[in-house]
Amino acid sequence: MENKKVSSTPLPIPAKRYFTIGEVGVLCGVKPHVLRYWEQEFAQLKPVKRRGNRRYYQHQEVLLIRRIKELLYDQGFTISGARNRLEHTESELIPLEDITASPQPSMVDLSYIRCEIQSIVSQLRS
Prior knowledge:
The protein is mainly alpha-helical. The protein has helices at residues 21-28, 32-41, 59-74, 79-92, 96-101, 106-125, and strands at 19-20, 48-50, 54-57.
């Protein structure tokens, strides 16, 4: 039997505006049915729905999905615990509207880098 080793480092997120559910699944290492379930459980996760009820995720939602995955799979949170943690940390962060309206787009980059560093730290701990 062949053992497939899955890379634990996340793929870089391409510079696109929208991602399909399949693309997000590959970028985050999560199956599409799990993403659809998480949409029901996490109010912050609201992809744009277009023709035929197709979901299109934006960059910040891909980062959110990676964070949810980290909380659930790496840190062992329950769904409700992860939901509470996200709501708690969300109140500490600058709203996305303020980031995009400000002349400092680097805040989005810092949020991405912070998420990536947290992911690396959690991998090193295990």
